[in-house]
């Protein structure tokens, strides 16, 4: 099983972004396979979005809902995707996370609107 397969099968992954001073900022996120990459979804004005815009270098590791890792971190590169790709990622998340995914995405859309969230595409380095 490849790192991509293993991480895509997890319920949560720990996405670690890096501040300007190099300090790591880990965040548990939902992730789903998107072709040859992982995809995640987050609030548009989240700190991780700002850090990814500045420097797409990240790591991803399997974790629990509280962000406690239970596997090796894998280096990767994250990018923020456009509105069309974000819609596709939302659809993939609905398929993987079923009812709770649909409810979370609906609640987010009602609270923030379509532009309130963005998709992230995470390509593993290995």
UniProtKB/TrEMBL annotation:
<dbReference type="InterPro" id="IPR011576">
    <property type="entry name" value="Pyridox_Oxase_N"/>
</dbReference>
<dbReference type="GO" id="GO:0005829">
    <property type="term" value="C:cytosol"/>
</dbReference>
<protein>
    <recommendedName>
        <fullName>Pyridoxamine 5'-phosphate oxidase N-terminal domain-containing protein</fullName>
    </recommendedName>
</protein>
<dbReference type="GO" id="GO:0070967">
    <property type="term" value="F:coenzyme F420 binding"/>
</dbReference>
<dbReference type="GO" id="GO:0016627">
    <property type="term" value="F:oxidoreductase activity, acting on the CH-CH group of donors"/>
</dbReference>
<dbReference type="InterPro" id="IPR019965">
    <property type="entry name" value="PPOX_F420-dep_Rv2061_put"/>
</dbReference>
<dbReference type="InterPro" id="IPR052019">
    <property type="entry name" value="F420H2_bilvrd_red/Heme_oxyg"/>
</dbReference>
<feature type="domain" description="Pyridoxamine 5'-phosphate oxidase N-terminal">
    <location>
        <begin position="6"/>
        <end position="87"/>
    </location>
</feature>
<dbReference type="InterPro" id="IPR012349">
    <property type="entry name" value="Split_barrel_FMN-bd"/>
</dbReference>
<dbReference type="Pfam" id="PF01243">
    <property type="entry name" value="PNPOx_N"/>
</dbReference>
<keyword id="KW-0560">Oxidoreductase</keyword>
